[in-house]
Amino acid sequence: xxxxxxxxxxxxxxxxxxxxxxxxxxxxxxxxxxxxxxxxxxxxxxxxxxxxxxxxxxxxxxxxxxxxxxxxxxxxxxxxxxxxxxxxxxxxxxxxxxxxxxxxxxxxxxxxxxxxxxxxxxxxxxxxxxxxxxxxxxxxxxxxxxxxxxxxxxxxxxxxxxxxxxxxxxxxxxxxxxxxxxxxxxxxxxxxxxxxxxxxxxxxxxxxxxxxxxxxxxxxxxxxxxxxxxxxxxxxxxxxxxxxxxxxxxxxxxxxxxxxxxxxxxxxxxxxxxxxxxxxxxxxxxxxxxxxxxxxxxxxxxxxxxxxxxxxxxxxxxxxxxxxxxxxxxxxxxxxxxxxxxxxxxxxxxxxxxxxxxxxxxxxxxxxxxxxxxxxxxxxxxxxxxxxxxxxxxxxxxxxxxxxxxxxxxxxxxxxxxxxxxxxxxxxxxxxxxxxxxxxxxxxxxxxxxxxxxxxxxxxxxxxxxxxxxxxxxxxxxxxxxxxxxxxxxxxxxxxxxxxxxxxxxxxxxxxxxxxxxxxxxxxxxxxxxxxxxxxxxxxxxxxxxxxxxxxxxxxxxxxxxxxxxxxxxxxxxxxxxxxxxxxxxxxxxxxxxxxxxxxxxxxxxxxxxxxxxxxxxxxxxxxxxxxxxxxxxxxxxxxxxxxxxxxxxxxxxxxxxxxxxxxxxxxxxxxxxxxxxxxxxxxxxxxxxxxxxxxxxxxxxxxxxxxxxxxxxxxxxxxxxxxxxxxxxxxxxxxxxxxxxxxxxxxxxxxxxxxxxxxxxxxxxxxxxxxxxxxxxxxxxxxxxxxxxxxxxxxxxxxxxxxxxxxxxxxxxxxxxxxxxxxxxxxxxxxxxxxxxxxxxxxxxxxxxxxxxxxxxxxxxxxxxxxxxxxxxxxxxxxxxxxxxxxxxxxxxxxxxxxxxxxxxxxxxxxxxxxxxx
Amino acid sequence: xxxxxxxxxxxxxxxxxxxxxxxxxxxxxxxxxxxxxxxxxxxxxxxxxxxxxxxxxxxxxxxxxxxxxxxxxxxxxxxxxxxxxxxxxxxxxxxxxxxxxxxxxxxxxxxxxxxxxxxxxxxxxxxxxxxxxxxxxxxxxxxxxxxxxxxxxxxxxxxxxxxxxxxxxxxxxxxxxxxxxxxxxxxxxxxxxxxxxxxxxxxxxxxxxxxxxxxxxxxxxxxxxxxx
Lengths: 919, 228
Hints:
The complex is a heterodimer. By secondary structure, chain A is of the alpha/beta class. In chain A, β9, α11 (263-277) and β10 form a beta-alpha-beta unit. In chain A, α16 runs antiparallel to α17 (427-442). Helix content of chain B is 42%, strand content 24%. Chain B has helices spanning 14-26, 37-47, 63-71, 87-95, 108-124, 157-168, 176-184, 192-206, and strands at 5-10, 29-34, 51-55, 78-83, 100-104, 131-134, 137-140, 145-148, 151-153, 173-175, 216-219, 223-226. The longest helix of chain B is centred in the middle third of the chain and has 17 residues, at 108-124. Classes of the chains: A alpha/beta, B alpha/beta. The A-B interface holds A 714, 718, 722, 725, 738, 740-743, 745-750, 752-753, 766, 768, 770, 774, 778-780, 783, 890-891, 893-895, 898-899, 901-902, 906, 909, 912, 914, 916 and B 84-85, 87-88, 105, 156, 158, 188, 191-194, 196-198, 200-201, 204-205, 209-213, 218, 220-221.
């Protein structure tokens, strides 16, 4: 869609803005080595330094050139880090040092350099990207032959395969490209003078490279790239600044790839064409049912081509089609406004293709409204590669061939017997069955072998003259020829069927493992369960070790789960994990970054951003992952990410709920505190002022009553403060019972003494036998529990009411019950009385205290592993509060003599019931 | 007029110092005051009080430290003022030589009883006293005999040992560790469970009810006290 001419295009603005905040990249581009890129770069660096810019040399290869060395001398040079690989030391650029040093401008030579194994990134341009992201400007040098999309062209021109390639997108990162030009003749001159550095070992091949023809071609390429970049910048600038002009139509180019080795070249060509036309491009692979029967190598080629397309910033699309590949492709093209199609010419892979029109031909016939470009395959290379791919080489175990021989022998025996017993003549059918059997069970090559063997057996045994390979009868020659054809076709078809069944089985297995996994994690409630299910599943399906790393509160990664359980990673692996986490890209084993690590880390990406990392580590680390494994891994990563996000969401909701509750609690606490602190204070201050002002005029009795009020209210205040403190400690989990062996009777007695004044004239009967076993509790806290229950009972009973305290052993528990004859607790409130600040309104309007007391009781009893509840009073009148504490076996006495001696004497203190009254 | 017994009150809260001064004065003690630990230590040296009432929470230094510093050169009885839920602090202070404690908030009666017990201990601490009378209990250390209201009570050896330790410190807290150490020796200092069982037996023989004790009082987490 063309943007309005008078408004800046948003994506162009975004592009510009992105380049603003990042460091700026300037590439000194040369057509070939020796043009003086490094020299020009250093000169520019010097100029910047004169302007006062902070310049640091990250890495520069002087190759011993005097003028270059002179230039580098007075610049700050960062020492290289030494990395040992296979016993040799390699000096590499110190990326971390540069990041820490944070100069304004870093000078880094040779952008296409491949780092030694053991460095953080595989390629230097990745280091540069990280520097740019950190806001550091970079000057760098590049030779044109390293540009990925030009790789094929250059290989063809120079006949030298360039291994160190650089994705084209890196060129796009550059805000400036300076072409360092030197005419070929001058270079050859310099070469002769020995001014160009040529590695010794490269020798002749390199020298051939410097032929005038080569150099001219390379120079043209470099100039074209530079010119295109200038163009692109111009267009971008014009769009960003809303300068009206002719815009390239938003057409698209579509490249269609398959398992053919040409695919990668197709992708590179597509990129180049699209770049030149300045249009977006799409790389499409049409997946047919036949895909599953492809060899691993073929699948790998498709995956590789798609990855290449991705790295060249094409859009990658996989279409699914049953049979009408071309229709599917053209429909998609129309939908996406594709105007140009790029396809490769198909090789005729096998004889079946003779009966079909090739896809390329079909496209040419049908795609009338498209501009179609057909690229010829590099026949020789393709075929050799295809052969290396394995499908035309005999395979199968010797055992398979033995089985094939046995099958044919059996068939021959059966045929022989049939022929001589009832003159059966269609022996060929019997042999065909043997071939079919072999094809289904042992594959193509053993079955072809069986075909040939059957043919020979048939010829040798069943055609006249018998036991000779010569044939007399013409019709028999015809039969034999027909037989060999039929058996080859049968063996081919059967083999195909076998592969398809196998492929379906794999695919079904994959689906079912994925399904099983989703079911498992859907059932898992907590994050721990999900993580455990995830690592266990990944480990068992990938036959690897698996880890999930999650960030903690400080955003530092931690191992959250591992199978087999793992809680340590070495430095290298941590480095990879942290890089993967900060950059949101895979890192570690077999990836672009830190590939020497033992673990491969994949970010768990969700719509809200990455939530963690999945790590896998294989026992067999020398073999690359098959594309099947890659796909499975990618699917698993997606599912684990979703599962983790799901529990995160759940815990977010839970957190919000807890927060709301805490807020409610806080306001309840505030109102309670202000009420319950103030009420006793009112009495205390009132009584005290009466005494202080009018003490003389009050009667002795009134005076002592006022003093008593002050005392009672003071004690009430003290109890409240104590409860408040305990509540706070309970809330913070800081209330740890200090357990010791204690007697329930003693504890109850102390609680009663504490509440003597509150209980007043109420009749309290205590039925706690001395003979109860000792309990292992915090006696101070349990006393508080009993006191709070008694306080509560006193609150709801009349001044002469009746309160019963009884305790008994029930199995392995000690039960203490406090019964009062007050109004009782309605059944629906029996649970909530233990909630914080719940208050049962007394029927006769009695002043009720806070509900703090009982909720503290629950907190303390539960901290002791017990339970507390409100119950029906036995007579239907009054309330019962009952708590249960578990009994633990008490330790043995050291001298049992004392104990037994004692028991003999004191049998009478079995049960004591006493009645106390208040003052 | 008999000479007043001098008592030093160390507490940073002026209101508490004031009410302690008034109450103690009224009971015939001469009170000097200190608001800070350093000040308190100095005043113990200068005034040579017969007893120190020390708040465990002082602004300038830990009460425990004050106890330790005083004990370096003085045997003056020290009664601590502390709060509930700090049993460990109480035990630590008692171990470092404090004589007793009162839990805040407290009634004046309770404090006076502790003061009296501590002062009495000081007067009577002749180590070879042959016997002691606590309420209606008469304990003869030499004969190892106990009589209550003139009736002989038969105690086992361990029970008598416990009673003797408590009686020698009548009215004063004796920590579990102190009891265990003096009866069983240092090996079993942590087995408070034995103690609880023997004290239970002792209580029964003395006719004491654990729910409402007349003789032996338990201070949970700290120790026992024979009520004087």
